[in-house]
Design a protein that fits this description.
The structure holds two protein chains of two kinds. By secondary structure, chain A is an alpha/beta fold. Chain A has two domains: 80 residues, Methionine synthase domain (Methyltransferase, Methionine Synthase (B12-binding Domains), Chain A, domain 1); 120 residues, Cobalamin-binding domain (Rossmann fold), CATH 3.40.50.280. Chain A is built from nine helices and five strands. Chain A has a five-stranded parallel beta sheet, sandwiched between helices. In chain A, helix 5 links the parallel strand 1 and strand 2. In chain B, the strands form four sheets. In chain B, strands 10-11-12-13-14-15 form a six-stranded parallel beta sheet, sandwiched between helices. In chain B, strands 3-4-5-6-7 form a five-stranded antiparallel beta sheet. Chain B is globular and about 65 Å long. In chain B, helix 5 runs parallel beside helix 9, helix 9 runs parallel beside helix 10 and helix 14 runs parallel beside helix 15. Chain B is α/β, with parallel strands linked by helices. The chains are: A alpha/beta, B alpha/beta. The interface between A and B is medium-sized, with 29 and 33 residues.
Chain lengths: 210, 392
Amino acid sequence: MSLLKEIGESVLAYQPKKAEEHTQRALDEGKTAAEVLNEGLIPAMDTVGKKYEAGEIYVPEMLMAAKAMKAAMAILRPILAEAGVEAKGTVVIGTVEGDLHDIGQNLVSIMLEGAGYDVVNLGIDNTKDVFVDAVKTSNADVVALSALLTTTMIQMPDVVEGLKAAGLRDGVKMIIGGAPVTEEYAQQIGADGYAKDAAAAVTLVRKLLG
Amino acid sequence: MQARERLMRVLRRDGTPDHVPWAPLIDGYYMSSRPAGTDILDAFREIDADIMERHVWTYHVNMNLPRDPGSIERFQTKGSVTFEEEGIVITLRMEPHAKGRLLTKSYRIPGRTLTESGLFTEQSPFLPFPVEPLIRTVEDIEAYEYVVKRRKFLPIYDSFVREDARIGDEGIATDSGLTAPIQELLQHTIGIEAFYTTFYMDYLPEIESLMQAMHESNLRGYEMMAASPAEVVIGYENTSTSYISPGIHRSYASPCINDYADLLHESGKIFLTHRCGLLKGLVDEIREERDDGVVDISPEPTGDLPMWEAKEAWPDKVVLGGFDATFLTNWETKQIRDYTREILTRSGGSERLILGSADAVPKTAQVGNLKTVGKFVRSWEFQSDAAIEGRE
């Protein structure tokens, strides 16, 4: 088995130490960080996403695979930055004002990072101004809003309006997710898409960014 | 037929009810939308529901709140209270916070103090958002095990009997069971990410030892429930594949649920489990478990299981639920009526079926929508659709 494949296998077997060791070995043997990322880690996380969508694995396994991926990324990230390797895009993500549930958006962040995107994770309880500032400063391609409650999902249209008022809406795609949120709601508030889970979010971002 | 008999016929699977009961989960979340001082029983009456009151406890846990008279009042006045149980010093502190009120609880045991905090906000005034979990390090696991082994359960049967009598024939009071340890750790004591990526992956023997201690403690609590006057106990598992997989559920949650069910069944109790999340991936595991029913079942978008699928998937269980928070909040009356009709039509008969909310009724729910379900079920079996619509 090639070393890059072994890196992928260690992610799929939830083995962070092996992912780290294989990554270091691949670099030592002359592979570039971009090769390790694009041919080892991203395909592995794609497989994780597909298995999740097919109901073969669930959130625990996704989290454990992500831990292995992160162990490898900790080695690659500074090298990628130094080499000027650009991410596939930048996604700003956070829960809307009043919502303090972060597990869903953390999973989406993990899967997007695993798919090669830069993620600006704003965490929980963000006002529309926080989203607007983050889009400005990060030059984001996508804004992802999360809400778990019927009482907090109503903040989502405010963020859409905030981005419009700041003149940023046309330059950024908006996606939403969370337990009470639906595709219809996304259309209703003028978002560009809805994702029912982390794997679907990656598919949606890929589709929106082309 | 009175609501108590109607509910118990379905729950005991003993005869046919005159109509499918309507028993949504009314708790503090919905009550915060009612005028101050509203009696919870009046809230049920207002929406034409069969009263199935939740969280009418038959036991007190010594580590939860102080027992001496006046201590709760002191806590409310001063914002903090300290008490001692089994050599453990417990402090509860409530402080103002920019987003609401921050509740901090600490356990001081020999050589270590464990602290957790949660935030009550306008959006969630009764159930705190976890801020800091109790267990953050491997050393905390052992410390918490020390606490758990000293947890004691004290009967408060009289208060249950009083509330049940107050309900009378209008419904039933239900006791709240203790959650399977893995669910407790995932949802409260550790958190989902840290549980899997830190403790499950790197400290499995330690976490298994803690779960065993928690389970043994829970069994002592269930013994108290088995001896109580409550006929129905609901374990608030919050089961969902959004944070547990079938394999892990089978290994760690199912055996505990089965133990609790067996213990309660020995005393003739009914054991229901509250599972309000994504359940499609767990239907096989749940089918094999020995609880008598699953309550507060959610269809999409919050969950993924319509009532008719749940009823078919679990032929030995009562199923309760069906109305997602978003339906109760956003739908028009006609949509609610149509959906009620769909559930009743597709569920194939009134046995094993109780309509209710999917998880707790939110404070954003429209009273008119809740009433619509209550009226519809009362008329369903005896009148045509046109007659039902004429009455509404």
